[in-house]
Amino acid sequence: MLAETDCRLILVARRAEKLSMMKAEIEAMAAKVEIFSADLRVDLELDAFLDFVHRLGTLDFVVSNAGISIHRPIFHSLGRDHDFTRTMAINYFAPVRLVMSLLPLLKQSGGHVVNVSTINALMTPMPHWAAYQASKSAFDAWFRSAAPELNSKGIAASTVYLPLVRTPMIEPTEAYRKVPAMEAPPAARLIGSMLYSKKRTWRPWWLWPVQAASILPIKCQEGGIRWRYSGCFKFYTNSVT
Q1: I need a labelling partner for 158 at 20 to 30 A (CA). Which of 124, 150, 194, 225 fits?
Q2: What is the pLDDT of residues 159-170, one digit of tens each?
Q3: pLDDT higher for 221 or 96?
């Protein structure tokens, strides 16, 4: 979307071959592109990327978009601590370290950080999403806490609370393949609009009624869980007597 803009883009992702394809496509137009292949969950790779950015010397915007999603019941995560460490690594620890390291460059330029978040961070916690919602909510809380301090130093801070977006990240969740989802280009336009408007937040207009409606199914499900556990306990005590 920024390919026809006179700017320099710094792109970081895991897949070097895809980054190279993007660089060639974008540089056929007006923008210049720097690419860096790294898995930001790996400390040494994150350190190397940050060194790379600092050597470039100037920075105006940071768009924090990397993330990982996981949909799994708690009792299916027993013995799978990595379900939680890997989501926290990319959804919380990596963006905190990245923003903290780049603050001097952003302060110098009067820059802007855009956090690409999710409506899940604003909704009632949902069953089967504990790892994902906890990690995304952690960075959302950190960023909202840090924003006034960033603003006081001349650094803008924006958050885009996106709904479900049709990307490869949602493909492993079978239930999501048939539900309505935002396509990637409109999501990109929303993110891009924050770069020039510097609006502090964007969220779907329909989020408030969905937040309210999400409470009832959870309460019903909790009631069902308690009922099943109660039934099992009665069966056990009756069989003993």
Answers
A1: 124
A2: 999 999 998 888
A3: 96
Q: How far apart are CA 227 and CA 134, in angstroms?
A: 27
Show the tokens assigned to 137: 């909510």
pLDDT at position 110 is: 97
Q: pTM, whole model, 2 decimals?
A: 0.85
Determine the Cα–Cα distance for residues 82 and 90; give it in Å rounded to an integer.
12
Determine the pLDDT at residue 232. 39
- Residue labelled with tokens 């999400």: 214
**Which residue from 114, 2, 6, 10 is spatially nearest to 62, judged by alpha carbons?**
114
Rounded to an integer, what distance in angstroms lies between the CA atom of residue 134 and that of residue 89? 12
Tokens of 78: 């027993």
pLDDT digits (tens, 9 = 90+) for 107-156: 999 999 999 999 999 988 888 989 999 999 999 999 999 999 999 999 99
Structure tokens at 178: 């048939």
Under 8 Å between Cβ of 86 and 129: no
DSSP the chain: --TTSS-EEEEEES-HHHHHHHHHHHHTSS-EEEEEE--TTSHHHHHHHHHHHHHH----EEEE---------GGGSTT-THHHHHHHIIIIIHHHHHHHHHHHHHHHHT-EEEEEEEGGGGSPP-TT-HHHHHHHHHHHHHHHHHHHHHHHTT-EEEEEEE--B-SGGGTT-GGGGSS--B-HHHHHHHHHHHHHH--SEE--TTHHHHHHHHHHHHHHHHHHHHHHHHHHHHHHHHHH-
User: Which entry of 92, 132, 161, 176 is annotated as an active-site residue?
Assistant: 132
The letter for the amino acid at 11 is: L
**Cβ atoms of residues 32 and 44 within 8 Å:** no
